[in-house]
């Protein structure tokens, strides 16, 4: 059986080259594409594996691409990479069917780990249900106010906006966020948002 292929879609040539080099050094087979349209033009002959796509690109965005792949029944797991300001779009991509997202700049090992997870965890209903139940149980340990702050974080709002809407100080929002990270075991904001997105389905 042929090795799985990692399909990299990013309009930034330097990023494509960097990811290609990293994955080649990890003995992974890659294909690179400068746009979602370039990728879709090859979809009829797509080798098994997984897809890595940027969110914000000229033409079709990564979010739109995830939706198109879902509509066409493409089975490849999709990892979305996103700049800080695009976390909300990344959450939408996960709701549309992406398996994971990583916020730039990310560690090399974080990407390699996400790829290994995507390749070894082809979505199965029983797995997803068990994972969702586990994450829901974790989120239920949060207080009602922490839940309010969490919703603001998932919506991509800044601390001062969350504070204004909830009638509390930005410093208090920071305390709630620190508590949320501790209770959930999330190591980063993107991981916390991933947990919420997966839990809520």
Walkthrough of the structure:
The protein is of the alpha/beta class and 201 residues long. It has two domains: 5-123, Rossmann fold, CATH 3.40.50; 127-200, Winged helix-like DNA-binding domain superfamily/Winged helix DNA-binding domain (Arc Repressor Mutant, subunit A), CATH 1.10.10. It is built from ten helices and five strands; from the N terminus they run E-H-E-H-E-H-E-H-E-H-H-H-H-H-H. The protein has helices at residues 13-25, 36-40, 62-72, 87-96, 108-120, 125-139, 144-154, 159-166, 170-184, 189-200, and strands spanning 5-9, 29-33, 49-54, 78-82, 100-103. It has a five-stranded parallel sheet, sandwiched between helices. Helix 8 packs across helix 9. It is elongated, with a radius of gyration of 18 Å.
What's the SSE blueprint?
Blueprint: E1 5-9, H1 13-25, E2 29-33, H2 36-40, E3 49-54, H3 62-72, E4 78-82, H4 87-96, E5 100-103, H5 108-120, H6 125-139, H7 144-154, H8 159-166, H9 170-184, H10 189-200
Parallel strand pairs: 1-2, 1-3, 3-4, 4-5
Helix pairs in contact: 3-4, 4-10, 6-10, 7-8, 7-9, 8-9
